[in-house]
Amino acid sequence: MVKLIKGQPWYLCPVCNQKMFPVRDGAVCKGVIIPCRRCGEAREMIINYREIKTGASTTKGG
After folding, report:
1. What is the DSSP string of the chain?
2. Could you give the CA distance from residue 5 to residue 34 in angstroms, rounded to a whole number?
3. Is the pTM above the cut of 0.90?
4. Lower Cβ count inside 10 Å, N or C end of the chain?
5. What is the pLDDT along the chain (62 residues), one digit of tens a residue?
6. Distance CA 47, CA 30 (A)
7. How far apart are CA 53 and CA 31, in angstroms?
8. What gap in Å lies between CA 55 and CA 62, rounded to an integer?
9. Nearest CA-CA partner of 11 in 42, 51, 39
10. What residues form DSSP beta bridges with 19?
11. What is the C-alpha separation between 42 and 29, in angstroms, rounded?
């Protein structure tokens, strides 16, 4: 899930909402499994340009 925090897009853990890493405009990512450092949940990371511009979420659990 990508969310704007203080004007900067961040990828957040979909389980605990921990900020995981910043995301640049135009970033595209699909099929990468990332574990959260806080809760340990491993989820597929899906990022697309539309998410960052509109704040829409297209995360997928795994």
Report:
1. -EEEETTEEEEE-TTT--EEEE--TT--EEEEEEE-TTT--EEEEEE-HHHHHH-----B--
2. 20
3. no
4. C
5. 888 899 888 999 989 999 999 988 888 889 999 999 999 999 898 888 564 555 555 555 44
6. 7
7. 21
8. 22
9. 51
10. 12
11. 15
With tokens 């297209």, the residue in question is 58
How many residues can be counted in the chain? 62
Token digits for 14?
Answer: 């979909």
Q: What is the pLDDT of residue 54?
A: 52
**Six-digit token pair at 56?**
């829409």
Q: Using the Cα atoms of residue 39, residue 2, residue 9 and residue 22 in order, give the sign of their dihedral.
A: positive
The residue whose two tokens read 């809760």 is 39
The strand pair at 8-12 and 42-47 is best described as unpaired
User: 59: exposed, middle or buried (C-beta count within 10 Å: 0-12, 13-18, 19+)?
Assistant: middle
